[in-house]
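Figure 6 in text form: structure in, sequence out.
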């Protein structure tokens, strides 16, 4: 006010209208005050960026400006990375992932006087074991090797069957003894009476016996027919008696497990 009074007294000397100098002085001071307020608001608006033009003499600072200040004061919490995710991220990108498919190697051999086509025998075993209808549904791949392997699949003359086991095998059926899986050549060539009488095909019989005897190696015992007309479990002795079931070459869903391979149902 002291400065304003001084300014007014100086202004008094230069105003031509001596009678109204005080009114003119008030108007000049009011103009200076309004201009100063306008500059202050323009600076504030430019800093906050709330959309008020810097050329506008008046502008209301709206609520979002306060919210912006509040959001700016929030500190984002630090989120820890789980150990399992860190392990994945640290793993080399070219590291091969486990396929989840177990590999089983087996060999094929014959015993006695074998007249059947051995190449056809081998091809039928390989395609049956790896059929999408068969044991491969457990996530297993069967690979034939020249010798050795986890089991040996034999094509045996009927009279030689008991040489594998006097008690476990007979000259009519096929059997499994330890790591020996044995197909009786007479059954390979002609099927069985029970199967044939039920309308089963020779090709289906061969697939059934392959799956049945390998099923023993996988850890399965025998099963019974669960109802007339139903598909027989592959572990039912369909060579001997259909028990009212329909011929079936493939393991049922409830048979898809293996204690030998550690596969649970
Ligand atoms: Zn059996």
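Output sequence:
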């Amino acid at each position: 006010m002291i400065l304003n009074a001084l300014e007014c007294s100086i202004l008094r000397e230069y105003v031509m209208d001596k009678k109204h100098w005080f009114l003119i002085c008030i108007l000049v001071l009011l103009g200076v005050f309004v201009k100063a307020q306008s500059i202050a608001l323009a600076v504030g608006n430019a800093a906050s960026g709330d959309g008020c033009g810097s050329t506008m003499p008046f502008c209301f600072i709206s609520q979002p400006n306060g919210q912006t200040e509040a959001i700016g004061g929030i500190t984002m919490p630090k989120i820890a990375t789980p150990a399992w995710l860190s392990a994945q991220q640290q793993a080399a990108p070219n590291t091969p992932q486990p396929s989840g498919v177990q590999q089983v190697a087996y060999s094929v051999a014959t015993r006695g006087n074998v007249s059947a086509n051995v190449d056809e025998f081998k091809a039928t075993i390989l395609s049956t074991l790896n059929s999408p209808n068969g044991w491969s549904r457990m996530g297993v791949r069967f690979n034939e090797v020249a010798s050795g392997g986890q089991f040996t699949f034999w094509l045996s003359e009927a009279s030689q069957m008991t040489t594998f086991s006097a008690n476990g095998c007979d000259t009519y059926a096929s059997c499994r003894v330890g790591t020996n899986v044995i197909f009786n050549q007479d059954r390979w060539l002609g099927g069985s009476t029970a199967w044939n009488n039920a309308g089963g095909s020779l090709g289906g019989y061969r697939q059934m016996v392959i799956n049945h005897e390998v099923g023993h190696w996988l850890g399965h015992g025998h099963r019974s027919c669960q109802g007339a007309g139903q598909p027989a479990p592959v572990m039912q002795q369909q060579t001997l008696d259909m028990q009212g079931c329909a011929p079936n070459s493939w393991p049922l869903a409830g048979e898809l497990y293996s204690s030998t391979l550690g596969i649970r149902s």
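Caption detail: The two ends are 96 Å apart (CA to CA).
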